Amino acid sequence: MSHDLSALFDPKGIIITGVSNHPGKFGFVTLHNLLASGYEGKVFPVGREPGEVLGRPVLGSIDEIPEGEADMVFICTPQAVNEDLLRAAAAKGVTAAFFAAAGYREAGPEGAEAEARLVALADELGIAVAGPNGQGVVSTPSRMCAQIVAPYAPAGRIAVASQSGNFVSSFLNLAHHTGVGISRAVAAGNAAVLGIADYVEWFADDPETSVCLVYMESVDNGREMFDRLRAVAERKPVVVVKGGASDAGARAAASHTGALASDDAVFDGMCRQAGLIRARDVEEAFEAAATIATQPLPTGDRVVVVTTVGGWGVAAVDAMSGTRLDATPLPADLYAAIDEKLPPRWSKNNPVDMAGGETRDTVPEILELAASHPAVDAVLFLGLGIQSNTAAMMREGGFYPDHGLERIVGFHERQDARYAEAAAEIAARTNTPVLLATELANARPDNAGPAAVRAAGRMCHASAGRAVRSLDLMSRYAKWRRARGL
Amino acid sequence: MSITLSEAESRRVVARHGVPVSAFVTGRSTDEVIAALAADPGVEYPVVAKLCGRAIAHKTERGLVRLRLGDEAALRSACDELLAAARPDDGDVEVLVSTMVAGNRELIAGLNDDPQFGLTVMLGVGGILAEAIRDVVFRLVPIDEVDAGEMIDDLATQRLLEEFRGEPAVDRQALIDALVGLARVGEQEAGIRAIDLNPMILVDGRPIAVDALLEVDEEGDR
Q1: Which of A148, A275, B16, B134 is the most exposed place for a label (fewest CB within 10 A)?
Q2: What does the DSSP 8-state code read for residue B169?
Q3: CA distance A253 to chain B (A)
Q4: Which residues on chain A are in Cβ contact (under 8 Å) with B116?
Q5: CA A37, A40, A45 angle in degrees (round to 5)?
Q6: Which domains does chain B have, with CATH numbers?
Q7: Domain residues of chain A, as ranges?
Q8: A315, A464 Cβ separation under 8 angstroms
């Protein structure tokens, strides 16, 4: 069954229960985060002690809220009172609830009974219930950070659904770090009613989302999940990272096939069959999602690597050797076109090592030539930020701005910003991914190259190997689609 | 509870769904075996003879396999020995005689009823080292030809599938057909818990199962 989760992700008004003036309590923190993120809908804090919190009047009861003003309730109150609160909220027109409250299945048999009652009540009231025991929900189109913890995130097109709240925070932190933003993010908590598949199905229809990012640990109904996630993957890319994935050989099996059927191998095959993009860890998952969210899908496996010095290109090709990506030999016409732009010492091969022979326009021109060639499916540029790194030393070296340094520093920094802009523009125009990688993205995030990529909400990988890994995952998904005529 | 079908029963079930198995005949006595062989020109010398029955799962370990039997005399004496080696608790037994197919490359394929995902189909690098190499890929049953092709592509040991020591590259369509047929066994036969086809030998690039073992629910007995 597909749930309408629009009131969960884009509520027009939110009731928060359990609000007190103690800044360490969930109710306070949620109210704070919601207001701090700039949520513009109505907010109704409800608590036991009347008064003001963060300049907002605290209501003693949900009964005081006008009908139809709120369609979402965020529950921070103790388990025992929550069924009454949910009924009261439903009477006011609430159709979605996020239960941050704990004390349910995770708390033992009595909690499990309370959770079963909650499931029945949600069904009776027709309320979409997220959680319980969850960290919250984030939605940048509504400027909403309804979470009991940090952070909010920059706006973008990645939608996160996670069985672990901590990893929601991890993904949001990575969004801040890279500048590649988030559309929605939700922690499933105990997933009493709404599970990963429910969220991802809603993301598939969400015009604000272009890629889904999932962290999962447990699989309850594997066959149903497979069917539902495959149907989503046919429409939008779904990146999956799974925790607890190794029980290899734990199963006592009479057959060879059974003995070889580790959970991880079966899960991996399920992902491949369903078109789910499986990443090895959280960082790789985020980077794959960030790449897919900001690049066109490649139409094949042929990659041209463009570098300003030799070693990086070698590393990129080494990284490709463990993948199905192909550092394609340069087609004759592309070779000839590049040869005209570069001095004779260039590598004359793929990787295209420009050997320091670039002049003002060379980098954008070479990227353009490679990306627009019909026999090239993706381009990887290594060398962004070198000029600005030189510029940084000149700025900081005690001679700036005299001796002509101001002028050359400005030139270097403008060039790197240009390269970043050119890569984005060429990728969009040629419909060919143009990835960028430099350790300066981490080492000197203020460098004009990576800074320009980040400001545009795009992904600058921290190494050639990581860029190759993202491209490989994206390319496998594209291949899965092509094989099925999608 | 589940039971294991004899190799002959297992071979017949998978062959019905298009899984290629080496040509074989069976008999309960040496004379029956010789007569069956005479009636079936598909089974050619040299042959392999095995004692098979539902209770016999580990033929090799018990020395119940005779390889490279070049003529009728050799086959007769092998049949006599195998039938004499049967133990009372082996239950009904028969001798299975199959063409001894030759190839340097062995794959493994099978089905397994997974606790999380239900019936899965597997392809791997096979033979006696399969469990040590662990180069295997799974899909959920049913699969189509596209899924089967991707299973082949997902094996790590791609070089084994290319031209190899004078043998041609794997016949991709034949392997796809075998996998789709194997998955269809799980889809269409009741009560399948597990199947092992180990090994499937690549003969001129085409996969041929030379051993088969089906584990079924007791009510799925056939």
Answers
A1: B16
A2: P
A3: 10
A4: 219, 222, 263, 266-267
A5: 80
A6: 23-99 (3.30.1490.20), 106-220 (3.30.470.20)
A7: 6-292, 296-483
A8: yes
CA distance A156 to A160: 11
Tokens 């105990």 found at: A190
* A310 reaches B (C-beta below 8 A): no
Going from the C-alpha of A300 to that of each of A376, A433, A460, the distances in angstroms are 8, 11, 22
Contact list, A476 vs chain B (CB under 8 Å):
none
CATH number of A6-292: 3.40.50.261
Distance in angstroms (rounded) separating the CA atoms of residues B147 and A480? 9
Measured CA to CA, the distance from residue A478 to residue A253 in angstroms comes to 36
Asked if A381 and A306 count as a contact pair (C-beta separation under 8 A), the reply is yes
What is d(CA A285, CA A240) in angstroms, rounded to the nearest whole number?
7
Query: Looking at the domain A296-483, which fold is it?
Result: Rossmann fold (3.40.50)
The closest alpha carbon to B144, from A257, A475, A480, A238, belongs to: A480
Cβ contact B134–A272 (<8 Å): no
Question: Distance of CA A465 to CAs A287, A385, A413, Å?
Answer: 12, 18, 25
**Residue in B119, B133, B90, B139 with CA at minimum distance from that of residue B217:** B119
This prediction's pTM = 0.95
User: Taking a C-beta distance cutoff of 8 angstroms, is the pair A298, A378 a contact?
Assistant: yes
SS3 B141: coil
**Residue A246 three-state SS:** coil
Does the CB of A428 have a partner CB in chain B at under 8 Å? Answer: no
- How do residues A318-328 score in pLDDT, each as one tens digit? 999 989 999 99
C-alpha–C-alpha distance, residues A228 and B210, integer Å: 38
Q: Can you give the pLDDT at residue B60?
A: 78
The Cα–Cα gap between A154 and A178 comes to 10
Rounded Cα distance between A277 and A238, Å, is: 6
B187 exposure class (CB count in 10 Å sphere: 0-12, 13-18, 19+): middle
Q: Are A129 and A99 in contact (CB under 8 A)?
A: yes
State the first-to-last Cα distance of chain A, in angstroms, to the nearest integer. 24
Q: With contacts defined as CB-CB under 8 Å, which chain A residues touch B120?
A: 261, 266, 269
Instruction: Tell whether the model's pLDDT for residue A304 goes beyond 70.
Output: yes
Cβ count near B218 (within 10 Å): 9
Residue A253's pLDDT is 66
Confidence of residue B67 (pLDDT cuts 50, 70, 90): very high
Q: A476-481 — which CB contacts under 8 Å span 24+ positions? A: A476/A277, A476/A324, A477/A233, A477/A237, A477/A275, A477/A277, A477/A292, A477/A297, A478/A297, A478/A298, A478/A299, A479/A301, A479/A324, A480/A233, A480/A272, A480/A275, A480/B150, A481/A234, A481/A275, A481/A297
Which DSSP state fits A219?
-
Cα of first residue to Cα of last residue in chain B, in angstroms, is: 15
Q: Which two tokens stand for residue B82?
A: 């195998």
For chain B, the residue count is 222
Contact B143 A268 (CB under 8 A): no
| Structure tokens belonging to residue A140 | 């940048």
**Residue A130 dihedral angles phi and psi, to the nearest 5°:** -100, 150
Q: Is the pLDDT of residue A15 over 80?
A: yes
Structure tokens at B181: 């047929």
Under the phi-then-psi rule, with left for phi > 0, alpha for psi from -120 to 50, and beta for the rest, what region is B96? Answer: beta
Facing residue for A219 by CB, picked from B110, B116, B120: B116
Instruction: Dig out the tokens for A177 from the structure.
Output: 């770090």
Q: Report CA Rg, chain B.
A: 17
Does residue A313 contact residue A382 with C-beta atoms inside 8 Å? yes
